[in-house]
Amino acid sequence: MLSFRNIECYSELIDENEFFKQFYNPDLPLRYDSNFFQLKYQPTLSEFELIEEMQYQFHANEGLKHMKFYWPENKGFTSEIMAYFEKEHYAIEMLELYTIDPKNFESDKQTSNIKVYSLSKENLVDFKRINYPNDLIFGKEFADMKKNMYEQMLDNPSIIPYIAYVDSEPAGSLISVIGEETVEIDDLLTVTHLRKQGVATALQEAVMTFAQKNSKQVILVADGDDTPKDMYLKQNYTCIGFRLGAQKVFAK
């Protein structure tokens, strides 16, 4: 059964016990989704405070600037945990997991004028350039880190980024992650002034073609508050679960 366990976090599992799994990537310290605890159960407040202290000590020792916790799939926060997060100024997120059989993908967008290519040394500069403004939202240090991450993807056979062009102009991109049963769509992006022209559809069609040839399901994660999830439902994706997260950045 597909779940958030099928989602790539660009990290390594470094510790596991009956309470949580710990993921850590020293090469991506500013990518909070690569450095976190995945809880296995619903803790009481006192239990969570002990878990929180464990992560704080580890992250502080490793020079990380945040704490992040994911709750078990399809479980909400208790009222006492929610009150604690509000008091401690945690940011809360809800992620939704979507899946589709690639042969069922539908769209009324015309994409014949859009060319889609897998990432190569020849188009890497374009790929980095169109992603940089979006990455820069999280700070220059983060955006520069992502540039290095994109370069490393060229040598990773399980990751296939795509870039789309409209009339030879770089128009959008996504990253596909190849799993045993799935192909994950990540970081789907359309350049602002080229939106509503079918760029996102063309990029997804490239993934659907690959997935269908290799007998894999397509999955993606959407923020619970994002409007693109309405597009996914129209394209025949199905929401199969949610996951709550809590994140806190250390005060400078």
Brief descriptors of the model:
about 250 residues; alpha+beta; Aminopeptidase; eleven-stranded mixed sheet; about 30% strand; N-acetyltransferase domain-containing protein; acyltransferase activity, transferring groups other than amino-acyl groups; DUF5613
Fold and architecture overview:
This protein is of the alpha+beta class and 252 residues long. The radius of gyration is 19 Å and the shape is globular. A hairpin with a 3-residue loop joins strand 8 (169-178) and strand 9 (182-190). The protein folds into 2 domains: 4-94 and 243-249, Aminopeptidase (3-Layer(aba) Sandwich); 100-242, Gcn5-related N-acetyltransferase (GNAT) (Aminopeptidase, 3-Layer(aba) Sandwich). It has helices spanning 45-61, 79-87, 124-136, 140-153, 199-213, 228-234, and strands at residues 12-16, 20-24, 36-39, 66-70, 91-100, 114-118, 159-166, 169-178, 182-190, 217-223, 238-249. An 11-stranded mixed sheet has the order 1-2-3-4-11-5-10-9-8-7-6, with helices on both faces. The mean pLDDT is 96. The protein is 30% helix and 32% strand. Helix 3 (124-136) packs antiparallel against helix 4. It has 6 helices and 11 strands. The longest helix has 17 residues, at 45-61.
Q: Quick check: average pLDDT?
A: 96
Total number of domains: 2
Q: What strand order characterises the main sheet?
A: 1-2-3-4-11-5-10-9-8-7-6
Element string (H = helix, E = strand): EEEHEHEEHHEEEHEHE
- Principal-axes geometry comes out as globular
Low-confidence stretches: none
**Structural class per helix/strand content?**
alpha+beta
CATH superfamily descriptor of the largest domain? Gcn5-related N-acetyltransferase (GNAT)
Pfam family, one: Acetyltransf_10
Protein name: N-acetyltransferase domain-containing protein
GO molecular function, one term: acyltransferase activity, transferring groups other than amino-acyl groups
InterPro entries: Acyl_CoA_acyltransferase, DUF5613, GNAT_dom
